[in-house]
Amino acid sequence: MSLSPPSSNSPPSSLMSSTTASSATADSSTVPTATFPIIYSVLCLHDFDSDDPDHLPFSKNEILEIVKQEESGWWAAMRKGFTRVGWIPRAYVQPLSEEMADKLWNVREELRAYEYGAEQLYNTAPIATSVQIYDPPRRQPSRKQVRVCSHASSTDVASDLWRIANKRAREDQERILSEDRALPASPSMLAAINKPTPPTPREERHRSNSSPSHRSGSSRDKRDANNVTSPKVSVDKIKQLTGSEDAVDWVIARHNSSMPWYLRPQYADQLRLDKDGNIRMATLPALVERLSTPQNTKALASEESFRDAFLMTFRTFTTADTLFEMLVDRFRMNPPDDLTADSQFSEWKEKKLQPTRNRVLTVFTVWLEDHRLLEEEPHIAQRLTDFLRLITPPSPLAGVANLIIEKIQSLTFSPPQIFPSGTPKRKDKNWAEVGLAKQDPANIAEQLCLLEFKLYSKISPQECLRSAKTKAHGDIANLTAFCATYDRLSAWVKMSILTSDILSKRASTVDFWIKVAEKCKQLNNHASMSALINGLMSTVIQRLHLTWAHSHRKQTLEALVRYNEPTGGFHAYRTLLQATEGPCVPFIGMYLTDISHIHDHSKEPFICFQKRQRWYELISFMLKFQKRPYNIAESETTQIFISNHLTHTTSKDTAWFWNKSQEVQHLEMENADIRRGLEEAGFLNS
Questions:
Q1: Element (H, E) at 615
Q2: 259-416+609-623 belongs to which homologous superfamily?
Q3: Which residue among 3, 266, 413, 416 has the highest number of C-beta atoms inside a 10 angstrom radius?
Q4: Mind listing the pLDDT tens digit for each residue in 54-84?
Q5: Among the four given CATH numbers 1.10.3210.10, 3.40.50.300, 2.30.30.40, 2.102.10.10, the one describing domain 7-124
Q6: Predicted pLDDT of residue 600
Q7: Are 610 and 402 in contact (CB under 8 A)?
Q8: Residues in contact with 215: Cβ distance below 8 Å, sequence separation at least 6, in sequence order
Q9: CATH assignment, 431-584+628-672
Q10: Directed axis angle between helix 477-498 and helix 526-536, to 10°?
Q11: Taking 90 as the threshold, does the pLDDT of residue 674 lie above it?
């Protein structure tokens, strides 16, 4: 590929020392430089090779640093730590955030594109942001909680916004002017008759929203720019015009500084927020302070979302005993020593102590009712009861404390909830003694729904979190049992086909399982549907070409297979699940993979809460169907039939399936040769 600009436009030789396409073979004599300010880093998604001395060849998975951008689509780039600057085509690279660039530098070069794709998949996967595993009644917020803080005027915030934006614009302009003389001649300077067009990769590419091309404001954004006195517009403009997390932190810090010192958060400087006001990382004291402090700033994350994400995931960075003690300390916090007037103490008590105590009791209630306090930490229940009994009249919270104690007692002594709560067991023929060929596919599919849902409903969020960090099945017994059923059902499909000695019987068995899979899809039993398809599409079954030639439902299977395809991160299946309502047993394998691939790059003492928030969203969506049981009557004999066959599959290993498949395949080939000979001899019609 040659994209050569005129030689007269070649850059100074001091800046254009030769180098190869790979960073691994870059000229070691190149001197590190600080000449060009870095705009941001980019990930190379494709190989780019060029003989032009003004171009910078590169290989897929390299990370380059952009020092200038041209509207023509050519960008000036250099490798980290080297001085050579060259032009690269925009279409071949993907801009990275600073956080993403840091992550990818710590990933092996050949895996960077895959890692970036996986991260984008997790960010864009269809996850219901408002879904909850449980749906307890929510207490109406008090007047104090909904009151909007008025300490910082909107005019001041707007003024701060424009100062930041104008300063950044001036710096960008000065930087661009200073770079123009040192950079190699831009390809956009060529005559129009020979103006090069940046090459685009052959394969179809989807640009990320992080691309600068998506940052230009719409006409509505431009109209809003004239209305910066609105508080909401001010926050939006900070994010839009600066794109800086530090700018958001600065505005929030300025808001806190306008409060009386004795009302300010103690650990606000230990919070790191993203541009939307959500917590990226924080220390444990800062997280507990946020958890137990009512928030009223629109730019910050939803209180309920943060609270639920914290209570679901706190066991990954601290213990239940530590959290309990820190919450009790927040409830019993003492006034600051430097209060100089009774009015200050009264304000501190009214605006900080009392709201904090209310919030602590709310956190204990949600922990108890929604986040398995009794199941995961039964010893905390006694400690909590002892603490609550100390809250007595005339404390205004004595009544709330008594209600929580009653709730602990009712949950402790109430019988466990049993799923599914459908219709009574039905009496039918003894299906346990009937062979597979005489079973009703619809009946098998319905009973698989009940079997799978019973296992699915027992999975806890903590098991999903532990699955990403341990291989010991003792801590994830329910999750292991559910996933094992997937493998056993897939093995049952393969075994039933391979053990059928007659060709027509094998083809009929294939069609039987396709009917069951189709019915499972109709019943939203995606777990069983996926397992059945996995068995039918396995190599040991797909190689039986003569069997498939006699199947009558291959087109139905082809329509189902797309839900098992991993293309686009199981895009077809995610879309199907997103639209699913009512009873459902989801296929959760891809979500468990998502959970295990969410990386933590925070450094002590900071906790990557952004990672926990994504865990919470994934797990909440994965388990949201647990309270929607099937209204299907259970057939005891069919359940026995299914259970016996699933248990029997554990006696066969991978080698057995492969050897049996070879045996059946050879038998089919021999029969095909005999049939062909009889047809040639005229004994059979061809």
A1: helix 609-622
A2: Son of sevenless (SoS) protein Chain: S domain 1 (1.20.870.10)
A3: 3
A4: 899 999 989 999 999 988 889 999 998 888 8
A5: 2.30.30.40
A6: 64
A7: no
A8: 240, 243
A9: 1.10.840.10
A10: 40
A11: no
Write the burial class of residue 239 (CB in 10 Å: 0-12 exposed, 13-18 middle, 19+ buried). Answer: middle
The pLDDT assigned to 684 comes to 55
Strands, sheet with 85-89, edge to edge from the N-terminal-most edge strand: 85-89, 74-79, 63-69, 40-44, 93-95
Whether the CB-CB separation of 205 and 45 falls below 8 Å is answered with: yes
> Could you give the strand order of the β-sheet that contains 279-282, starting from the edge strand earlier in sequence?
271-273, 279-282, 607-608
DSSP 8-state symbol, 164: H
- Asked, colleague to colleague, whether 7-124 and 431-584+628-672 share their fold, the answer is no
- Asked if 477 and 465 touch (Cβ cutoff 8 Å), the reply is no
Cis peptide before 583 (omega within 30 of 0): no
Strands (E) across 269-327 are located at: 271-273, 279-282
As a whole number of angstroms, the distance between CA 575 and CA 569 comes to 11
Contact criterion met (CB below 8 Å) for 296 and 312 = no
Q: For residue 10, give Cα distances in angstroms to 53, 54, 72, 85, 86.
A: 7, 6, 18, 11, 10
pLDDT on residue 536: 96
**How many contiguous H segments (helices) and E segments (strands) does the chain have?**
28, 8
Residue 105 CA to its chain's centroid (Å)? 21
In the block, residue with structure tokens 């009151």: 147
495-496-500 Cα angle (round to 5): 110
For the chain, how many residues are written?
Answer: 686
Task: Of 22-26, 171-175, 220-224, 632-636, give the range with the top mean pLDDT.
Answer: 632-636
Tokens for 295, please give them. 């928030």
Provide the residue ranges of all domains of the chain, joining segments of one domain with +. Answer: 7-124, 150-185+226-258, 259-416+609-623, 431-584+628-672
Q: Which two tokens stand for residue 71?
A: 């509207």
Continuous segment of H or E residues that includes residue 228: none
What pLDDT does residue 260 have?
86
Whether the pLDDT of residue 242 is over 80: the answer is no
Locus of tokens 């169907």: 625
> Nearest to residue 358, comparing CAs of 571, 140, 203?
140
Contact 118, 43 (CB under 8 A): no
